């Protein structure tokens, strides 16, 4: 079966790191390149983290530093969850920082010029994709679909209304959701069901290999920080759900509906208004994840951690 060609745009970030590993280890996915965006931490730190992850596991793909800030609003970071480095909990060897000469949007445009039927996966603010679509609209024809982690059918996680990736750059999300490209939203209503717990960490440590130890060390910090920040027992493992949904298309039930991004700069700025019951009879522009087989997700992740890939 032909591999799914993807470009991953991310802001590592602990859960982004797991998404990179899952994509790289899957025999069903061809990772064409990684564009990095500011989000969980500054662009300097998220790109440094991306490079470390790829060097450590021998993931040889172009890595481009993307936008250092959102299109309109001021940058926001999430140090309380991801720490000062953006990836606290794992010490990498010192690697030479060599990034692709292209910026994030340019990398997307070049890879889409050379490849068609590409899936764009975003697990951070959607700034780079929005910039690429504005710089070269014709790349839309080369994109099979966009799969993004962001938003929520119900409550946010930074404000009552808004989830982090969308709040940080609501204008970029607005551009992407209204691009006319087939687009799938995997929001907090789903990822809050995929929880890293002490038991999960213990199970992965028991595998005792390079990937599982990396995962366990990162998740220890990811869970402890979220316990402190949100007073919750399990840490939602947001980003790898996007990749897992590509590996097994039965993982998630999607419902097509109208999604409008609130860009009003009011108290609900950054909310993904999902018209689940079609009240507005507006164009159905987005496939929204409505349910997930959580057991199946963990089977996919543990299969990755047990694999010999990138050992
Ligand atoms: O709200 C969760 C999302 O914001 C995740 O992608 C996390 O990595 C942060 O980017
Ligand atoms: Ca992320």
Q: Explain this structure to me?
A:
With about 300 residues, the chain is of the alpha/beta class. It has a single domain (about 5-195, about 235-290), classed as Ribonucleoside hydrolase-like (Inosine-uridine Nucleoside N-ribohydrolase, Chain A, Alpha-Beta Complex). The chain has helices at about 15-25, 45-55, 80, 105-115, 125-135, 165-170, 170-175, 190, 200-205, 210-230, 240-245, 295-305, and strands spanning about 5-10, 30-35, 65, 120, 145-150, 185, 195, 235, 250-255, 260, 270-275, 285-290. The two termini are about 25 Å apart. Alpha-D-ribofuranose binds near residues 13, 15, 149 and 163. Calcium ion binds near residues 10 and 40.
Task: Give descriptors for this structure.
binds calcium ion, two-stranded antiparallel sheet, alpha/beta, binds alpha-D-ribofuranose
N- to C-terminal distance: 24 Å
- How many helices does DSSP assign? 12
Structural class: alpha/beta
* Helix content, binned percent: 25-40%
Query: Strand order of the main beta sheet, please?
Result: 3-2-1-4-5-6-12-9
Task: Sketch the major β-sheet.
Answer: 8 strands, mixed
CATH class annotation: Alpha Beta
Low-confidence stretches: none
Approximate shape:
globular
Provide the number of structural domains: 1
Listing every helix as H and every strand as E from the N terminus to the C terminus, the arrangement reads EHEHEHHEHEHHEHEHHEHEEEEH
Number of strands: 12
How is this fold's topology laid out?
Layout: E1 4-10, H1 14-25, E2 29-36, H2 43-57, E3 63-65, H3 79-82, H4 104-114, E4 118-122, H5 127-135, E5 143-149, H6 164-168, H7 170-177, E6 183-186, H8 188-191, E7 195-196, H9 198-207, H10 210-230, E8 235-236, H11 240-247, E9 252-257, E10 259-261, E11 272-274, E12 286-292, H12 294-306
């Amino acid at each position: 079966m032909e591999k799914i060609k993807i470009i991953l745009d991310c802001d590592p970030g602990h859960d982004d790191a797991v998404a990179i590993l899952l994509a790289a280890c899957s025999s069903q996915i061809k990772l064409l390149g990684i564009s990095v965006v500011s989000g969980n931490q500054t662009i300097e730190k998220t790109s440094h983290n991306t490079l470390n992850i790829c060097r450590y596991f021998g993931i040889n793909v172009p890595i481009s530093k993307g936008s250092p800030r959102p299109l309109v609003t001021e940058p926001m970071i999430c140090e309380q969850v991801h720490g000062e480095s953006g990836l606290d909990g794992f010490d990498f060897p010192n690697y030479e920082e060599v990034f692709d000469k292209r910026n994030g949007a340019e990398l997307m445009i070049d890879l889409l010029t050379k490849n068609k039927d590409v899936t764009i996966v975003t697990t951070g603010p959607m700034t780079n994709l929005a910039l690429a679509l504005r710089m070269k609209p014709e790349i839309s024809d080369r994109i099979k679909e966009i799969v993004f982690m962001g938003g929520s059918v119900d409550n946010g996680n930074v404000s009552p209304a808004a989830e982090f990736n969308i709040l940080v750059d609501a204008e970029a999300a607005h551009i992407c959701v209204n691009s006319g490209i087939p687009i799938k939203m995997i929001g907090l209503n789903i990822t809050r069901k995929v929880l890293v717990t002490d038991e999960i960490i213990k199970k992965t440590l028991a595998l005792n290999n390079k990937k599982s130890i990396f995962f366990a060390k990162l998740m220890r910090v990811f869970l402890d920080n979220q316990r402190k920040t949100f007073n919750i027992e399990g840490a939602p493992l947001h980003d790898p759900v996007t990749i897992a949904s590509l590996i097994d298309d039965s993982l998630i039930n999607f419902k097509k509906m109208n999604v409008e991004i609130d860009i009003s700069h009011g108290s609900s700025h950054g909310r993904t208004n999902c018209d689940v019951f079609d009240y507005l009879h507006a164009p159905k522009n987005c496939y929204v994840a409505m349910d997930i087989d959580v057991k199946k997700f963990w089977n996919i992740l543990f299969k990755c951690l047990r694999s010999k890939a990138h050992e």
